[in-house]
Amino acid sequence: KSANPQWREQFDFHYFSDRKDMLDIEVWRKDNKKHEELLGTCHVDITALPTKQTNCLELPLEKHPGSLLMLIAVAPCTGVSISDLCVCPLGDPSERQQISQRYCIKNSFQNIKDIGFLQVKVLKAVDLMAADFSGKSDPFCVLELGNDMLQTHTVYKNLNPEWNKVFTFPIKDIHDVLEVTVFDEDGDKPPDFLGKVAIPLLSV
Predict the structure, then answer these.
(1) pTM of the shown model
(2) Predicted local confidence at residue 176, as pLDDT
(3) Which domains does the chain have, with CATH numbers?
(4) Residues 133, 157: contact at Cβ < 8 Å?
């Protein structure tokens, strides 16, 4: 019940500099569980923003009254990567040794914010639900840790997809939960949910 809401939420998105990305933002109003109304949209050209600084933007909503105040920082991304299984970042013994030294007890207070990182190998899924009339699905896998999100490619017409990808996340809170969700790609429509698993970092 506010015309001037304050959310104060921070989200981290990862993008590669060779892409020309637009950040699309939608503001919605919810009356109850069933009724939602779009209050406006706005767009930010990420490539046009100065890097390594926080940009304060007041964005008018298109075709609707009101504006959105945002702080957007474009900065080099550390600790996040997607790679194939054959070039796993932790596969090199010398790199493993460097990491062990970086996080040993005597170095633990050099950078308080550098808690560590999580590496996840997404190999395959087995016996997924068929989402298409053909008896198949077009599955892809989404990994979320805090407000970080990475995803695999889509394997088309397959109930037993193999992705064989390695994902690396920086850890910001040791109490976070890794959520792994499998979706069925459905063209221009929202993807269909095929299953999910949640893994608390403290259980790893």
Answers:
(1) 0.63
(2) 92
(3) 22-74 (no CATH), 81-89+115-203 (2.60.40.150)
(4) no
